[in-house]
Design brief:
By secondary structure, the chain is of the alpha/beta class. The chain has helices at 11-21, 34-42, 72-85, 101-110, 122-129, 136-146, 161-176, 192-200, 266-277, 283-296, 306-316, 321-328, 334-345, 365-374, 406-414, 444-465, and strands spanning 3-7, 26-31, 46-49, 64-67, 90-94, 113-115, 151-154, 181-185, 206-207, 218-222, 241-244, 256-259, 348-350, 353-360, 382-389, 392-399, 419-422, 426-432.
């Protein structure tokens, strides 16, 4: 439960106290004004008559500290004491009446957010304080501030735009609260659009192969929720932060967990953090987050929520649309065209489902593009394209106009022999070739046939028995438990 400590009292402070009482959590007030103490106690508010800058009158814990006196100098003294007493708390300070510029600057240096009542309307004040937000943002800041060193922010392997944007977004948030952070990834960034995003926006990501995890005080996962599963980390690695929008297949363990399957992208969650924390978004980051949001919701047509539209509207104010156009129209390699052609030529159609084995590949990201193109075939609602590279079979599935969840379908079909998962209408899988690779390696055609017989059969059988897509439930919504 969030505990909000109010230091000092004034007309603005009293309004904030009344609003805070209507939200979840505790409210504790310290003021040396006996009149306010009496008024608050009569309203069943825990109030102590003492100097707001005296830490001896403070409770043992506070998650949010609101400094709300009319006197700017007293606010500064109280804010400095609160920061020393509660180093991990979020501090919101009112500037008071007619503050000197030096006092305003000093308050800004110690507080997370600064509120000037003379310049803000009441609803803006409440929003800045964060009373309308739930406990997530307070917990995130507390976990970040508790780290004794830098944070490693890890995407899933072969990160897509949503994972890339979320990683650099969380990196910016960590740095805003005083924590150094690196955005890291495993696998490759080989898809043309993903490479274009990184290159055009000059995004810096560290590959896990060159990272010493022991040098980091904390680890965060973005756009996935389990360490050691498709992310290049050792299995069982302890994680401090998880931010994701995919439905988890197993309990998620971390000090801070924000997993919301009802949201269309992780970029949406990160954009909301920026808004809650009043951190300015620069053009580069807003562009990346908007692109990640658009790609994961398939231009707002897949698993999209009201929150996604709201985030996109805010991001669009700062993003550079001309850069998005450059990212969305990268050059396509001859290898990609060849794989798409092979997928069309080798297709196996059964009813409204098509599967295609393209054999040995050089660019696994082309599989996703081939799966997308096969959806254009008349009467097709589910596509499945796969090929092998360096001892691993890679697969990509897409669906449209069907109630079959292809993410669950791939897990059921291939999860026992590899790793698989994704969304209801977009999923992928990786399966070690294992003993299949023992086939005469000089005969690519023979190996391709063996792979086709092993994989396609599993897929078609599972699709035939697949249940209908269940409604998505937000585990963090009102009335549910963690």
């Amino acid at each position: 439960m969030v505990r909000r400590l109010v230091l000092g009292c004034s007309s603005i402070g009293h309004t904030l106290i009344e609003q805070a009482r209507e939200r979840r959590g505790e409210v504790y007030v310290v003021t040396d004004d006996p009149g306010w103490v009496t008024t608050l106690r009569e309203s069943n508010v825990a109030a102590v008559e003492a100097d707001p800058a005296d830490p001896g009158s403070y409770p043992d814990r506070a998650d949010v500290v609101i400094v709300a006196d009319d006197d700017p100098d007293r606010n500064l003294a109280a804010a400095r004491t609160a920061r020393k007493r509660y180093p991990d708390a979020s501090i919101v300070a009112c500037v008071g009446t007619a503050p000197a510029e030096s006092v305003r600057e000093s308050l800004a240096a110690v507080a997370d957010r600064l509120v000037d009542p003379a310049e803000a309307i009441a609803d803006r004040v409440l929003n800045a304080v964060g009373l309308d937000a739930d406990e997530r943002i307070v917990e995130l800041v507390a976990v970040l501030r508790s780290l004794s060193g830098p944070l490693a922010i890890v995407t899933h392997d072969n990160p897509d735009p949503d994972a890339i944007a979320s990683a650099i977004g969380l990196q910016r948030i960590a740095e805003a609260v005083g924590v150094d952070a690196d955005a890291c990834y495993g696998g490759e960034i080989s898809h043309q659009e993903n490479r274009a995003l990184v290159n055009v926006l000059d995004i810096t990501l560290r590959h896990l192969d060159g990272v010493e995890l022991d040098t980091y005080a904390g680890i965060a996962l973005v756009d996935h929720s389990r360490s050691g599963v498709n992310d290049g980390l050792p299995e069982g690695t302890n994680v401090d932060i998880v931010i994701d929008h995919h439905p988890p297949r197993a309990p998620v363990t971390a000090r801070y967990v924000d997993v919301r399957p009802s949201i269309g992208s992780t970029s949406t969650l990160i954009a909301d953090y920026f808004d809650r924390l009043s951190i300015d978004l620069d053009e580069r980051l807003a562009t990346a987050l908007l692109y990640g949001l658009r790609i994961d919701t398939r231009e707002f047509t897949r698993e999209v929520s009201v929150a996604d539209f709201e985030a996109a509207a805010r991001l669009l104010e700062t993003a550079d649309v001309s850069i998005l156009e450059r990212v969305e129209r990268p050059n396509v390699s001859p290898e990609t065209f060849e794989i798409i052609a092979t997928a069309i030529r080798e297709r196996d159609v059964r009813g409204s489902v098509v599967a295609s084995c393209v054999g040995e590949i050089t660019d696994r990201d082309a599989l996703a593009q081939a799966a997308e193109r096969l959806l254009d075939l008349e009467g097709i609602t589910i596509t499945f394209v796969y090929g092998y590279l360096e001892g691993v079979v890679y697969a990509s599935a897409r669906s449209r106009g069907t109630d079959v969840d292809v993410g669950e379908t791939l897990r059921d079909a291939l999860g026992q022999i590899g790793s698989a998962g994704g969304h209801a209408d977009m999923a992928g899988a990786q399966i070690p070739l294992g003993i299949l690779a023992a086939v005469d390696e000089d005969s690519t055609e023979t190996l391709t046939e063996v792979v086709r017989e092993s994989i396609s059969g599993r897929f078609f059988e599972t699709v035939a028995d697949a249940p209908q897509t269940p409604p998505v439930e937000d585990p963090f919504s009102e009335g549910t438990t963690d």
